[in-house]
Design goal:
Ribosomal Protein S8, Chain: A, domain 1, 5 domains, 3-stranded antiparallel β-sheet, 8 strands
Length: about 525
């Protein structure tokens, strides 16, 4: 029984002891692990603290370094500012010193001038006193001489004065009569000369050569067989062309060409282009002619508008009315004395703009007025009146400002100058017209004008030779140095210039240059 109990108790005790031992080992192990964990945690905490302390130290050093750098930069900037202030102060001090020196010099000059003025006042007072004494003495002498003259002549002063007046009056009447006769003769001679000049100018403007050159256009034909087709059956085609275009067609024996005759260059251009298109197309009959002429007119009007707009754009005029563009483009087919009117208008506008800007005037008004100054010439064959009045009415109708209209209206000097811009426009127009080569001139009248210019210079005493230069815009006169002195050469140039002004008609101005030279010659033997 006991043995069985022992058998049961002993294993139980052993098991209990083993369990206790194992529990003790486990507890010991857990304590060791906990101790290790705590130790590691403490070490990690210490390491983190050391790292934090090290990072804080580094951050502190970086902040300190950055603060030192900023302090250094501020110190340097302060030093630079201080140097700048010192330099400015030194400059101001030098300026003040110079101004003080200049002020002192001016004060000294003023004092010297005051002293000089004081001396002059004293001298002037003395002179006035001497002059007063001399005047009194002079009056006394005059009175004595007058009394002596009255005694010797037996006449009183009033009687002598009356006698002298009568004598002077007679001489004046005689001289005035002679002057009246001379002026009357000169007026008659001048009237005859001016009448001849006006007649010759009218003949020159309407001469046959001028008419042939300016009223005729030529259309080249690929074959003379086309002349019959252009004439048409019983002349119906040529009549249709003349009716549609308003020009005369001359179909003669001229090989390979027909002639268009008319005073309106715009109509001649329409007729020329229409005939060229009809020839290229091959269909030539009245209906086709009317269709082609209408199309050419439409295209030409659009091309003229674009041409006028392009020139206006080049001049900086961007707000002109489209009708103004159209008429200005039409001036491309108009000439004045051989000068293209559109090119002339653009040239006048450029010159007016340059001159207006140089003298500080309204360049926009000057350029605008100069560009449209001849716009009436585009429609003067279609309306009654001068091109000037037609142009004024047209511009006012299409919204141009009164300043532009009045500046344009005065370009022929028909009215008093309304503004300085109007004078600029007139001057630019004269410059463009007077430019050598700008306008056609008949050779004979040109040569005669040069010969008369040289003849006027040669007629003066002491002139050895004269030369007309620059298309008659300058004349140079060589004089004999033995007969004409330097002072007389000056007066000679003025006399010749006055004579030219009185006897010649010319655009612009003529420069008169008198050349006097002295030559000394000797021979070495």
């Amino acid at each position: 029984m006991l043995s069985d109990f022992a058998k049961i108790i002993v294993p139980a005790l052993v098991a209990a002891i083993v369990s206790a031992v194992m529990f003790a080992v486990w507890v010991t192990n857990r304590k060791r692990i906990a101790a290790d964990t705590i130790g590691r945690a403490q070490e990690q905490a210490q390491r983190i603290a050391r790292d934090a302390e090290r990072d804080a130290e580094a951050t502190k050093k970086e902040a300190l370094l950055e603060a030192k750098e900023k302090a250094h930069d501020i110190l340097m900037e302060a030093e630079r500012q201080a140097r700048t202030d010192r330099q400015q102060a030194a400059t101001l001090e030098q300026t003040l010193s110079r101004r003080e020196a200049a002020t002192a010099e001016r004060l000294a000059t003023i004092e010297r001038l005051e002293k000089e003025l004081g001396g002059r006042d004293t001298a002037l007072s003395e002179r006035e006193q001497r002059a007063a004494a001399a005047a009194a003495k002079y009056e006394q002498l005059v009175a004595q001489q007058k009394h002596e003259l009255e005694r010797v002549a037996g006449l009183t002063a009033d009687e002598a004065k009356e006698l002298l007046i009568k004598q002077i009056e007679g001489e004046a009447r005689h001289d005035s009569a002679n002057l009246l006769k001379r002026l009357d003769a000169e007026a008659r001679e001048t009237a005859v000369d001016r009448a001849k000049q006006y007649i010759t100018e009218a003949i020159q403007r309407c001469g046959a050569e001028h008419a042939i050159e300016t009223t005729v256009s030529v259309v080249d034909l690929p074959s003379d067989d086309l002349k019959g087709r252009i004439i048409g059956r019983e002349g119906r085609n040529i009549r249709a062309l003349e009716l549609a275009t308003g020009v005369d067609l001359i179909v003669d024996d001229t090989p390979g060409a027909i002639i268009l005759s008319g005073f309106d260059p715009y109509r001649r251009e329409i007729a020329k282009q229409a005939i060229e298109r009809l020839i290229a197309d091959g269909r030539i009959h009245p209906a086709r002619i009317e269709e082609v002429v209408a199309k050419v007119k439409e295209e030409t009007d659009e091309a003229m508008r674009k041409e006028g707009a392009a020139v206006a754009f080049e001049l900086g005029l961007h707000d002109l009315h489209p009708e103004i563009h159209r008429l200005m483009g039409r001036l491309k087919y108009r000439t004045s004395y051989g000068q293209n009117v559109l090119a002339h208008s653009a040239e006048v506008a450029r010159l007016a703009g340059i001159m207006a800007r140089e003298v500080g005037l309204d360049a926009h008004v000057a350029v605008r007025a100069a560009f449209v100054h001849d716009i009436g010439k585009a429609i003067d064959r279609e309306m009654e009146g001068t091109h000037l009045q037609i142009g004024i009415d047209f511009l006012r109708k299409h919204g141009e400002s009164e300043a532009v209209v009045m500046a344009m209206a005065a370009h022929h000097m028909d009215i008093d100058w309304p503004s300085l811009e109007a004078m600029i426009v007139q001057a630019a127009d004269a410059i463009s017209a007077a430019r050598p080569g700008a306008r056609r001139d008949i050779l004979e009248s040109y040569v005669k004008r040069l010969e008369k210019l040289e003849g006027i210079a040669d007629s003066f005493k002491g002139v050895s030779k004269s030369f007309a230069l620059q298309a008659g815009r300058e004349i140079r006169i060589r004089v004999e140095s033995e007969k004409i002195s330097d002072e007389e050469a000056v007066w000679l140039s003025k006399d010749i210039a006055r004579r030219i002004e009185n006897e010649l008609e010319y655009p612009g101005q003529i420069k008169v240059t008198v050349i006097r030279e002295t030559r000394a010659t000797d021979y070495a033997k």
